[in-house]
Design brief:
By secondary structure, the chain is an alpha+beta fold. The protein has a single domain, classed as 3-Layer(aba) Sandwich (Protein Transport Mog1p, Chain A). 23% of the residues lie in helices and 23% in strands. The protein has 7 helices and 9 strands; from the N terminus they run H-H-H-E-H-E-E-H-E-E-E-H-E-E-E-H. Strands 1, 2, 3, 4, 5, 6, 7, 8 and 9 form a 9-stranded antiparallel sheet that branches. A hairpin with a 5-residue loop joins strand 2 and strand 3. The protein is globular and about 45 Å long. The protein starts with a helix and ends with a helix. This is DUF5642 domain-containing protein. Keywords: Signal.
Length: 250
């Protein structure tokens, strides 16, 4: 039986924490000038409601020109850089991802970071287990400049500066201290920096991994229901590492 709250939590965490991922002013990295050399495929879906459950979606493969990190980047190129269910683990299904702007969990009265500093292009994907007891979301935002990406991180960092965060629906979650996971996520390329947070709430636990690399801000969120079997799934850090590697390849 699908647990809708798990997917909702993943959506809320990704959308509200995307640009609130603990970056400092010196977190920006010029390494995004790495030359893209391969083409890749991906899939994304949108719906009117991020809480709506969906059945597995047939994979549609497309081929797009790799992104030019120094120039304009299209919506299609960002979508092609996102993970597909098959790239995460066998048996996963595509969920429904919705692009929304939400205030930081630690201050529901604050203006969403994406409203203050809108990204030039952004896209995301939701991937779930068949029973819905585990959900992963990836979101990529491309800013006009490295300075804007870093500024979005700085402004949004206050959104994680609390022990207990409150979502728009009134539910709460506990946010752990930030952990530098750059060595794991970015180690192979030496590009960018990554930080993770453990997040727990009633009936679920999760991990948010955020990466800042040049003009790119990436958020990967993994949420699982208490008691769910995740033995066949990669760890949140492994998922984030795979996601960042694919983004670089594009």
């Amino acid at each position: 039986m699908r647990t809708p709250r798990i997917a909702v939590v993943a959506t809320l965490l990704t959308l509200t924490l995307l640009a609130a991922c603990g970056g400092e002013d010196d977190d920006k990295d010029s390494g995004s000038d790495d030359d893209p050399t391969t083409e890749a495929t991906s899939e994304t879906t949108t719906s009117e409601s991020p809480t709506e459950s969906t059945s597995p979606t047939e994979t549609v493969e497309t081929s797009v020109t790799p992104m030019d990190p120094t120039g304009d980047i299209t919506q299609e190129q960002v979508e092609a850089a996102l993970l597909t269910p098959e790239e995460v683990a066998p048996g996963l299904v595509l969920g429904s991802w919705t692009n929304e702007d939400s205030p930081p969990p630690c201050d529901q009265s604050a203006t969403p970071v994406d409203v203050q500093i809108p990204p030039s292009v952004e896209a995301g994907v939701e991937i779930n287990t068949a029973d819905g007891n585990a959900s992963m979301e990836e979101e990529i935002a491309i800013y006009a400049t490295e300075e804007e990406a870093s500024q979005a991180f700085t402004i949004g960092s206050a959104g994680l500066d609390c022990t207990t965060a409150t979502a728009e629906d009134g539910s709460t979650a506990t946010i752990g201290q930030p952990t530098d996971v750059t060595a794991e996520v970015n180690g192979a390329s030496g590009i960018g920096t990554s930080t993770s947070w453990d997040i727990t709430g009633e009936g679920f636990s999760g991990v948010l991994v955020a990466t800042l690399a040049g003009r790119i801000v990436m958020a990967n969120t993994f949420v699982v229901a208490d008691g769910a079997d995740t033995s066949t799934l990669p760890t949140p850090i492994e998922i984030a590492t795979t996601a960042f590697a694919k983004a670089l390849a594009n």
